[in-house]
Structures are given as C-alpha cells and as structure tokens.
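Two proteins follow. First one:
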Amino acid sequence: MLILTIKTDQVEAQLCLYQDEKLLEAERWSAHRQLAETIHQKIASLLKSQEFDWADLQGIVCFKGPGSFTGLRIGMSVANALAYGVAAAVVSAQGDDWQTVGIKRLMAGENEVSALPEYGGEIFTTKPRK
C-alpha cells in the first residue's frame, strides 16, 4: 500500500512516502506562510522522485494536532481532498508515534473518509468590528 503522511502543525512541514510500513522518502521544508502554495508541489516532487503518480496513492495519514490552526486546516484539507480525488483511504493520528499508528490503521482497513483536526483547545474567533 502506497501511503503519504502529512504533518503541517508547525512552521516546518513534513511529508513522507511509505510502501506499507517501509519509509521510501521524506521531505521537510520551512513552509511557514507559504504552506498552501508549496504543499502540492512538494507532494508531486516526492511522488515523482519515487516514480509514482498521484493516482498510485492508496492511503493518507495526516497529523491531527494539536498545533497551528491554519497549518492543521491546510494539511487536513489537502489530505481530505487528495483522498477523495484519488479514492484513497484517509486517517488522522496524533502523538509522537502518529505515523506508525496511522499506517497501522490504514493497513487494517480503516478510513475516516473525512479526517478532522484537533486544535488542542476551544477555537477562538474574534467578533467583527462594526
């Protein structure tokens, strides 16, 4: 099973490509405010470097948090949209062993269909000014 892992809760984003539980390649970059602009390019580059295409993905594991609201939102949106677009399973996980846990869940046949973030607290939005 070809699996993509996505972690976007910090300034440094991380993508990994696995064949079952074997790590094929990892990519880390300082995404900061360019995460939404760079994540698709980084995924495409990661797949191409291993001679795979988007449609080859069979599973996606996304770090669910806690972490940056915007970073998690972008990572989860990409994971969910990509899973839907290529008909891959998607799961989310947290903790230090999130990749291992997520990969085992995928290999056991789990699919959240739509992974949701865990921000680590109540979401606070400011009231609009009049």
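Second one, unrelated to the first:
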Amino acid sequence: MSHDILDRYLRNIEQAVRTLAGAHVECYQEEFVSANRLNLKLRIRFQSGHLFEVSEAVIVERGKREHLRYRYHFQDALNNIVFRYDNVPHFTKLDSFPHHRHTREGVLQTSRPELSDVIKEVRRYFSNGAVEQ
C-alpha cells in the first residue's frame, strides 16, 4: 500500500511537470529507499535560462504521505532567487519553523506546499508575463 501511495504521488508530479511549457528536464531521479520511502530529485531548465530544482525525501506512515525534508528552488537566468521553499531548520524564530519560503525580499513563514502547487506557481510566474519561457 505504501508503494502505491508513493507511485501515485510520482505520477501526479510527472503530470504536473508536463504542464511546464518551454521546459527541459535535465535530471529526474526517483529512488525507492524502501517500500515506504522515496527520494526525488528534479532539475528543470527553461528556454529563458530559469532553473527549477526539487529535492525531497518522502515517507508513508500509517497510510499517509509525509515529507522528511524538501527543497523547491526556482531561480532566474542570472542565478538570482525567485523563490525557494524548504524545511532546513535554520529560522527558529518563525512560527512555521522549520518551514519557510525564501524570496528576493527575504524569508517568510509558510507551511510546506504541495509540490504540484509549487509547479503551478512556476507556471504562473511565466504566464503573468514576468519573462518568456
């Protein structure tokens, strides 16, 4: 059952990635560490030079998917951060600790977003006319 939950999660991510126009998947690595644990790494480059990277460790406990660690990083063609979500435990004063979001303006508290929602956020970034893909 755990493997089915993880497999369904991966299929949803693959489907979301396919919605990214002007994107080339440079790296897609999924590793089943055990029947209930998965490590996922993604590196997606856009025609514009923007880069979206994903690194996460996901586990299924009691039939529920949990993220042990995650990093969803999006940067522009000049290597400037657009945003990054992660749970590295270094902003201890945030109410959402260890979850936070980096932006060009600073660090914000947040809950862990679903990766599919982060992919939608990347897609919106381009569709809002910020830059062509």
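SUMMARY FIELD: The mean pLDDT is 94. The chain has one domain: 2-127.
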